[in-house]
Amino acid sequence: MIQDHQLLREFHALPADKQAQVIDFIGYLKSKLNQTEPPKHSGGSYGSLKQYSGQNS
């Protein structure tokens, strides 16, 4: 499991616009936890991230 200090170090190394994307993605993940229906298979974590970020490759 990732350590808090490692996560913060990586987060602070990002430019401000990327930090904002990380915060938005955390909110997205938390909203998914609160849904009552089971999550649909999206190809794993990377697939979810690609879908969330709008990438279609």
Radius of gyration: 13 Å
Strand content: under 5%
Number of helices: 3
How are helices and strands ordered from N to C? HHH
User: Which residues form runs of ≥5 with pLDDT under 50?
Assistant: none
Question: How would you sum up the major sheet?
Answer: none
Structural class: mainly alpha
The percentage helix is 55-70%
Mean pLDDT, all residues: 80
Query: What is the overall silhouette?
Result: elongated
Care to count the β-strands? 0
Brief summary:
This protein is an all-alpha fold and 57 residues long.
Report on the architecture of this protein.
With 57 residues, this protein is mainly alpha-helical. It is 67% helix and 0% strand. The protein contains 3 helices and no strands.
Key descriptive features of the protein:
single chain, 57 residues, mainly alpha, 3 helices, elongated
SSE layout and pairing:
Layout: H1 4-13, H2 16-33, H3 44-53
